[in-house]
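hey m, so remember when u said the tokens were messed up on ur end? i reran from scratch. heres the input so u can diff it against urs
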Amino acid sequence: MSKKVVLISNYYPPEMGAAANRIQELAQQLSALACDVTVLCPLPNYPFGEIFDGYPKKGQFEETINGIKVVRLSTYATKSTDRIKRFKGMLAFAKSVSAYIKNNQITGNVIVQSPPLLVSYFAVRSLNKKGHAPILNVSDLWPIAGVELGAIKKGITYSFFLKMERYIYSNARLILGQSNEILTHVSKTVPAAKTLLYRNFPSPKPAVCVQKPKGSVRLIYAGLLGTAQGIFELCQQLQLPVNWQLDLYGEGTEAQQITNYLKTSNKAIQYKGSLSKEALHEVLPTYHMSLVPLKKRIYGSVPSKIFELAHFGMPIVYFGDGEAAQLIVHHGLGWATQNFDFSSLNDLLLAIEKEREKWPVPREIMNIAQQEFVSHRQVKQLFEHLN
């Protein structure tokens, strides 16, 4: 008999971004292990802030994608940076999840994605009321990350979120953490919590490895264009070496600012819009190097794109510090600055240009990824914890 699994996530394709992709990856790999998988998610709206064409504006909508049942629930779609509107969006989906759990029979295993903390709290609490202790998949630490990003100030609201965080850790039967920093934090918060390191490894199968440049260098950034990444400020401050070109792909709250700035800039930076994951995988081998910035140090955060890029043999320039920087340096995947300091980044790019003979070999990066960053081993570990 197949094992039943319900995945609850605030993001799922056709939405874009790492959050949607990693949940789809988990769903597909569990399905490949003969699990009966259902995904609960909002009506697709991210990152554009509007419900996608072909979907109802509200209510419940069911479809099957690659053999996986996807149940889409009502939400409040917005891409506004206004905190009240963003809170309203998370609360709307949280209530939809809670109502679905209350009104439907939930059997088997439930894996709840966190963040958003509000959604995971409503989900865990509703499941507990029905006698379910779910598995919690923690990819970022909230409310700590909220404070570091400037979205939350320490005070009454922060204290309330801390109680929510402790509740979900205390009432999950297993906590998956995508970094060692996350697991350390969980264990300090709830010492009795059972944890498992579960990196956000992708399973791309690139047919082509990137190549070292013979002349000009094509640099790529592909991801969200939001405050956490700081791409607008990067465009303003970045000084590329001669004969270097940076292409930006993505969507987010800073997209219009970036577009307006580049219209009047003579820098070798172009904004190319957004691409699907499949389309991005086709263009990646045409670039020589990837830039991965994280504007503010977010404890516990390890961008999953570094593992995906490694599978293409793509050298990485990581603009930030923390566990992700340590992984990149340890495995020889590229370079990392120590903090979000643009003079350091510009100096690093010049040093990279001057020492081309010391660049990581793309084929060696790809080999490391195929040995170290493989998701099927993790999924098999997780499978052993399923009922």
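this time it looks ok to me. The chain has two domains: 4-198, 217-371. if urs says something different then somethings off w ur setup not the seq
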